[in-house]
Predict the structure.
Amino acid sequence: MDYTVLQETTPKFPPHIYTIDSDGMLIAFQNGFTYEKHSYSNRPLRFSTKGRTFRTIVPYDKNLPKYITTKDSCTCKGYMFYRKCKHIQALRNQ
């Protein structure tokens, strides 16, 4: 899955961080103040940049990891369908 990580720079808006897939859908969100993370990999949400400004934190790069993995979630299809995957298991075993 290809993805880009954006940080909101719109004046008077919190500096939230958004992970967008190659189709322009929101797959992860991090609150800019509390750093609380939310994953929408099992059901991506529509995302619009209209009227807002962002800076690119992580542009899509073939050398970057293919999936975004935390100890509780992953953007791979295995986690999406079965709620289990080898990426989370590997991260927990580190």
